[in-house]
Known about the structure:
The chain is 62% helix and 11% strand. The protein is of the alpha/beta class.
Amino acid sequence: MSVNAWLKSQRPLAGGALTRTLWLNTANGLLAVTQAWALAVILNDVIFEGAGLTDIRAWLWGLLGLFALRALIVWLAERSAFQAAADVRATLRDQVHRHLQRLGPSYLSGQRSGALVETLTKGIDDLEGYYARFVPAMTLVMILPLAILTVVMPVDWLAGLVLLLTAPMIPLFMILIGSGAEVRNQRQWKQLARMSAHFLDVIQGLTTLKLFGASRREVEVVARVSDEYRHSTMQVLRVAFLSSAVLEFFASVGIAIVAVFIGFRLYGLAVPVAPWLHVPEIGYLQGLFVLMLAPEFYAPLRNLGTQYHARMGAVAAAEQLIRVLETEPDRTNPGTEPLAATRPLGVRFEAVRFRYEEGREALQDLSLEIPPGQRIALVGTSGAGKTTVVNLLLGFLVPTEGRILIGAQSLSDIDLDDWRRHLAWVPQQPRLFQGSIADNIRLGRPEADLEAVREAARRARADGFIEALPDAYDSPVGERGAGFSGGQIQRIALARAFLRDAPLVILDEATANLDPESERLVQEGIDDLARDRTLLVIAHRLATVRRADRILVLDQGRVVEQGRHDELIETGGLYARMIAADGASHLAQGGIGQGIEDR
């Protein structure tokens, strides 16, 4: 779909607010014609008819009423235009967020977050000018000049002819100049997206840059990129000012010609046109009326030229939005059935294959079973496919071949929202959001009361440090859990899982990178969480592996070994070699080390 067609297709999102804006602006333009006639009558009566204030009192009150009515209409039109743009922005932002959720982590991992945030924020905000300003201006330019010509032609066909011939010059030059500005504006938008992405990368990696002495180099890069963006912005503004000057020039020339022709005839002079044309005489009342309508005739055209730059900004932003919205997930889960399996849940992979792209197999004929109520540990070398297994279970990915069964149901037949309500997930690096600790624990059950939150925190061994805080569960949480240690964040994430009370819990290396004391507390919480639930543990610590009912060893997307810890050690296979490679120091700390981190 072209950008213009896409922008037009979003107009229904503005609802009735945009329609009201168009009608109000049209009414305001038609009242301007009435106002010009009232002014012409008043001035003609006072100057040429010798009328006093008493004689023109009714006209003056009518003119005052017109002023007030037009002011009210302009105010209402502005409000309606803002509401229309706000409706479009809110709906589009919701659509894009939902689409990104459907695309899932596999899409987001390949995008620069700074550029994506710029599209979701400034990009969607740039559409405001298009729907609040450009669309009403475009509609008005097709109505009001035609209405004014209809009024002027019977009064003075010569002035009407001047207006008719000069009017096309304004949109013609607007398009000629605007096309060059549009190219520059699109280039400027891409520069802004790249600059935003680069700046966010620099901010996120500031500690690393400082430690490696590269921060000053990056400052110079940011300064250079910013200066390039400044130059491109000035180029766009230069073209914009040039187009505005051209529009004003042609409008002024048109008004001047009308004024000259009217002036010649009012003084009884011959109008410099073709001698064979009969130019009718004109009175002061008619001449003044036509002269006052001339600026009103050009006003919608000039306004359209001004708002044309709002369209260019919207076009540049729409290109990025279309690119996101037209990106289809590799495969989608079309399931609509509710989950029928009972608690606890059992999961089975049957000959599952998954490839991220052609020639890049992540899973190859993977068959495994996670029996109900058991704790299953998944281990393997980097790139073995553990994270892919988790993403398939979470519904972020869909198998290329094979199927995943939840009880007797295929996951592809189950409604994803219903399926995820039966899941709890504790990742290696949980994310806390701004708000209170209680809000973060309630993430999966926002309706839970404080007593349930406290019980979840107690079972996650998080109640001790939370209740020691001045505001306890109402204590604010900074961005990404600022002010809390890794172990504390992990226990808050575990409390979420307890409060969720899901029959299937996925722990993605939940005890990795923790100090021994934090690991002990988290491990105690995991042991408590394992009761009456099915646990899938992406194993990193030996303590987690030892407690597993069964260990599945992945290698190149296949299960190559399975069994209990002691059994796998005795066989001397891949699992035993991974542990042996870590050395005695890692074993003493209860970990199987960095050698089995997933991709």
